[in-house]
Amino acid sequence: MATLLNGSLYSGFYDCQSFLKKNHRTSWPNMCSFQRLSKAKYDWLSISHRVGGNLFTKKGINVLSPEITVPSFAPEFLDAIEDEYNGVIIDPKSLPSSANAFVSALRASLSYWKSKAKKGVWLKILPEQADLVPIAIQEGFSYHHAEPGYLMLTHWIPNEPCMLPGSPSHQIGVGGFVINDKREVLVVKEKCPCSCSGVWKFPTGYINKSEEIFTAAIREVKEETGAFFFLTCVPFCVYVHVQLHRHVHLVAFENSDILFVCMLEPLSSEITIDDKEIQDAKWMPLDEFVGQPFYVDDHMSRKVIDVCVKAYEDRYNGFVARHLTSKLDGKLSCLYYSD
Length: 339
What we know:
Elements: E1 2-5, E2 8-11, H1 17-22, H2 28-31, E3 32-39, E4 42-51, E5 54-58, E6 80-82, E7 88-90, H3 99-115, E8 120-125, H4 133-138, E9 142-147, E10 150-156, E11 170-178, E12 184-190, E13 204-206, H5 213-225, E14 241-248, E15 256-264, E16 278-285, H6 286-290, H7 293-297, H8 299-312, E17 319-325, E18 332-337
Parallel strand pairs: 7-8, 11-15
Antiparallel strand pairs: 1-2, 3-4, 4-5, 6-7, 8-10, 9-10, 11-13, 12-16, 14-15, 14-17, 17-18
């Protein structure tokens, strides 16, 4: 009747002991009855308590005092929906709050999904449910990824190689190459102990969630230098070109890193630095910029600058963002290509 988990005694029965103490006139057989319910595609179980002709139904499974002997019954399943790959996505808001209820429902659900030939199971754990993580791991789940507000676990049911996609493995950066009609490049010197410390470089940063590449480039340059672009006033403009991108591996936290470099045209020469992350910013002559020892030794960075200079001299065409409707979500998205 009970299961030993992590040194604690768990049972899949509702605790009626305290209720019995308050209702001396009602014996256990007369007080508790069990009904089997059906909901959506799955069979769902509830525990019904009849007292004085009134029906009370409680979802969930709680600990039963070991002093009381009761008939066994099947635990309820976890609320879940099917995904398009014959997998299962568990609703995190419906997870039982107690450990024994969770393990009982999880085991029953996994057994049921296996009988239905389901494959991947996705389990999102919210911060307030963190104590359920060790239980899920013990039941065969693995860490997939974490974001602010949740931890995602997965489980592959079939006895075959797992086909679930891996966790996010790339970080996306943007850079803004800004050059004026005097062949001066807008450069910054960052406050960081990295390999480019003390080097004058063009503004770079990471793209935000659901942010377009060219929008991120404009934002980063504006945040770091205060430079103003006409492009920020309109939803789309061909004056932003994605010139190229570079792809390196095993960088931050062993992730791959992709950097998109955009060509921007300034409206003014005024500079206001962000002193939280930028040590200094200025307009630097192109020859002085590329003559720094860092770029002499770094062949990839030097090639990036060469391509941007060719674009400035109209000897190279980069990719322009064009708004088109995507079948994925029916919304406007950007397709980057060269005319």
